[in-house]
Amino acid sequence: MQEIQLNMYHALALGAVMYWLGAALTRKLPALRRFCVPAPLVGGLCFALFNTLLYASGLAVITFDETLETVFMILFFTTVGFTVSIPMLVKSGKSVMLLLALSIVIILLQNAVGSGVMALMGKNPLYGLGCGSISMIGGPGTAAAIGPDLDAAGAVVGTTVAVAAATFGLIFGSVLGGPIARHLIVKNHLREELPEGREHEEDADDAHFTTHSNRFVLGFLMLAFCVGLGSYVTTGLTKLCGFNFPAYIGPMLVAVAVRNLIDHTEHIEFPAAEISTMGNMFLAIFLSMALSGLKLWQLVDLALPMLVCLAAEVLLMVFFSILVVFPLMGRNYDAAMITAGFIGFGMGATSNAMANMQAVARRYGPSPSAYFMIPMVGGLFNDFFNAAIIALSIGLLS
For residues 167 and 140, what is the distance between their CA atoms, to the nearest angstrom? Predict the structure, then answer.
């Protein structure tokens, strides 16, 4: 079979084209808009399906360099760190703590369901961890990082199982988030949907604001500084705690510190709108590239126990989000948006969560509290607790 390799520049161009294709399809197909399906998911899956057909036919397979995908991912999460205001965190502390508690509960439930299903079907329960929070809450990055620990603990091909499960979760985390949020909004009459062809200005693709080129330069220089310094922070945390942290954790923490330092400095005006605009761009490209690179044929070769396990994880997330997350977070519009984000990072990644919420916001309007809490819990705190629980679970089951 011929392998067609795309370098990082080709991959960047592919991500841009797939996002454009996804945006065009969501504009043309009412069903995609109605169910709040993110444009990067649509475009990325179009290419992933095309690549799968090539692979299945035996003609070729397309692979590409993921260097710039990682760069855009880190840049996006750094912009998320800039949104964290310590005074606002103190003010919203109870809600953040409640959401964090719910995320810890779902970590434990995902691992219990995964390990239980595998044990009932006569398989090593460690494979259930690979289908549990390692791949669901953790996402592809955590699956690739911790998968070798499963191999070392006795779960042969544990890395392959975890990465394939993360691929599955990445897709369903995007597919389910918007539609479930819309169902909650419509069922509970939380907010009126805008007429076809209109979007809320705050989240529309053509949203505008008054700015200056120097403000964009300042914003990008801040991002570059936080990414560079943050890489050392990530390395230090990994050595200190003894387990791997995602590459974006350090830059996010540095961005939080820089943002709050600027807030207490009178002579520097923080370029919030410019950094937010860059963040939207980084998210669109990163997610399009990540989804375009999905190897969907890996799911076809999954064993029956793994398929049953993943189906159980989907049902768990659906019922937990509707019956637990939405009611406890307030049963209002903000709670519906938080539910969309919770599903996104609970089955894929925080970038999926942000894309889910942006897709819903275009039809129903923004939710500042959800935009604040989801990145805080899903992107920062959650990774610490997930890594600790996974390490403990592997030790108990191996």
Answer: 7
Burial of 201 (0-12, 13-18, 19+ CB in 10 A): exposed
13 alpha-carbon distance from chain centroid: 22
Instruction: Kindly list the distances between the CA atom of residue 36 and the CA atoms of 26, 39, 69, 358, 378, in Å, as whole numbers in the listed order.
Output: 9, 9, 24, 9, 20
Task: Report the candidate in 321, 392, 369, 337 with the shortest Cα–Cα distance to residue 136.
Answer: 321
Instruction: Answer yes or no: are the C-beta atoms of 223 and 366 closer than 8 Å.
Output: no
**210-221 residue pLDDT tens:** 777 888 999 999
**38 burial class (0-12, 13-18, 19+ CB within 10 angstroms)?**
buried
Q: Give the closest residue to 106 by CA, choosing from 354, 321, 356.
A: 321
Q: 279-303: per-residue pLDDT in tens?
A: 888 888 988 888 888 777 776 666 7
Residue 392: half-sphere exposure toward Cβ, Cα within 13 Å: 11
- pLDDT band, very low/low/confident/very high, at 89 (cuts 50, 70, 90): low
d(CA 344, CA 350): 6
Cβ(310)–Cβ(164) below 8 Å: no
Tell me the pTM: 0.73
The helix/strand/coil state of 4 is strand
Q: Residue 386 burial by CB count (10 A; 0-12/13-18/19+): exposed, middle or buried?
A: buried
Residue 346 CB neighbour total at 10 angstroms: 31
Task: Give 5's strand partners.
Answer: 63
Q: Which residues of 357-373 are buried (b: 16+ CB within 10 A; e: fewer)?
A: bbbbbbbbbbbebbbbb
Q: What distance in Å separates the CA atoms of residue 351 and residue 69, rounded to the nearest whole number?
A: 12
Alpha helices (H) in the chain, listed in sequence order: 8-28, 30-34, 39-57, 67-81, 86-91, 93-120, 125-130, 139-152, 158-187, 213-241, 249-263, 272-292, 297-300, 304-320, 326-328, 333-347, 350-364, 368-374, 382-397
Instruction: Determine contact, residues 376/89, Cβ cutoff 8 Å.
Output: yes
The secondary structure of residue 192, as a DSSP letter, is P
Q: What is the C-alpha to C-alpha distance for residues 270 and 218, in angstroms, rounded to an integer?
A: 9
Pairwise CA distance, residues 350 & 215, whole Å:
27
